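tool_log.txt
---
The assistant was asked to compare two proteins side by side. It first ran the structure predictor on the initial sequence, then on the second. Raw inputs and outputs are pasted verbatim so the downstream comparison step can read them without reformatting.
(1)
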Amino acid sequence: MIRDTAAQDSPLPTRPRQLRRWGFIIAAVIALAALLMALPTLQQALSSNSSVSATRLVFADVERSAFVRDIAAEGKVVAAGSPTLFAPSAGAVTLQVHAGDSVSKGQLLATIESPELAAKLAQELSNADAMKADALRAEVDARQQRAALQSAFDNARIDKTTAENDLARQQKAFEAGAVAGMQVERARDTLAKAGIALAQASAGLTLKDDSLKFDVQAKQLAHARQLLQVQELQRQVAGLAVRSPVDGQVGQLFVAEHANVAKDAQLLSVVDLSALEVQMQVAESFARDLVPGMPGEITGNGKSWPARISTVSPEVVNNEVAARLRFAGDTPGQLRQNQRLSVRVLLDQRADVLTVRRGSFVDESGGAYAYVLRDGLAVKTAIRTGARSIDKVEILAGLQPGERIVISGAESFHGAAQVAVGR
């Protein structure tokens, strides 16, 4: 017989049906466990509007700490006083100093020759002398006229006395029968006329005396007024000698030697180096918080000096406001004009304030809301912010200490109510 492979064939053993059932059970348990583990992530994905990776975000914790609100900037040393001197009158200028010269208060800096002003002063002096002569002449005329009126008054008084005596004689003679009654009446009329003449002379003397006084006083007042004009011109002539108003240094010359200048033209400037200040530029957003008297600190040359804000410019230039700080004590002697120094101004300082690190969320939302991180979700939460410093923001409502918020990168949320934050 032909041999085949029948002797090599044998039936394989079959797996029990129970073992297959346990395999299905184990696979189901593993799948259920994986589903339970992924359930929170799935819920977050289903409940959130979107998902953003945490690597694209910046977080900060809300905490209670000291809140210091200040401004730090670079300033330059400037002179507190730098007066510019102007020409008081038109004329030719003769300079007595050069730029950079040290000068003292009252020192002659320049002179101006003004022939027009000198001629006007001489003319007004002549007018003053003429008015003085008029006033003296008026006094002499007043005395003469008063003497004449006084003589008329004395004569009238004598005439009245004579008429009184004549009436008395006529009265006695009439009583003795020596004269007629007509003569007595005539003497009485003469006395009445003498009385009227005396009264008129007295009134005329009084009135004329007052008139003469007024005339003399008017001449004297005109002379005094003219003297005031002379004094003003003399002051202007004295002002042609331009003197330094402060101790300091000549800054800049605006005119050349022996140049003819118009009235009120710039001549030169004087820098008062005894009082130096530091000028800083402050952003417009902080300008409304600056007021004169605020404390500050100036740092430079390895030293620090306390200072206070002296002035704040009312004008905004290139979104900045200029402010000046004055040294609280004596001005340091080693400083030079236009030297650069570091400046810090303390706006506010409080302890135990709820704060969070400042980020772009303040500018994006205007401080109206923030995204709080809760169980892997960034939840949009309404907040209320207060004062702001360079690195911190005061939280007035909406957040609690220990909470974690998104301070930067929230613009990718597009205002969603909540966003899943992945790893």
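(2)
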Amino acid sequence: MLSLAWHPNNVLLLTGSSDFKARVFSAAIKNVDKSPPATPFGDKTGFGELLAEYLVGGWVHNVVWSPSGNSLAFVAHDSSITFVDISTGAPGNLQIVKVAFLPLYDLLYTSENQVIAGGHDCSPLVFNTTQDGWAFSNLIAEKKDPVAQKTGGTKQAFELFKNKVEVGANTNVQTLSTLHQNCITSLAPFEVAGKDVKKFTTGALDGKLVVWNSA
């Protein structure tokens, strides 16, 4: 197992693993959680029971619940982000969005209708709901260079990614045109209004912690 996230009601546990699967488990403990709220997976579940399993095309790096707990999302090493709507019942409606970027590593719901993700491209990506479901919206560009705004330095980030995979070092790689100079590994709320995140932070392997406005 690589990652886990608690449901807002604390009786469901979402996990991601290197076997290309995300799973939902029951975490309700009899005689401890006396009256656990009903969930889309039912209310007669035993502790540790596997309730749902979702398969994707790469190892799952991170998982997250939406603020309401009515949906979940996770990112995998095949440059995909998966959204599962469980509002109408389990196991839910699954949608996989593939992006033309390097693999994503972490993600954050800033609202029920928006997710920010980050990874090896070194810049945050924005996903929003549309009439056809979830879709990639834009990359948050932090420099005035028009090329950087459109690509986020993807080519340079790819060279860094390739060198790390092949020789284990960042050799022959120039400074990236992005604010972060290495993979974004964590996203966290910084300023919250109600259930919406107005500002968030990114932490990366370059040692930087950056505060962003939600798109």
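---
observation on (2): The chain is about 10% helix and 45% strand. The longest strand covers residues 184-193.
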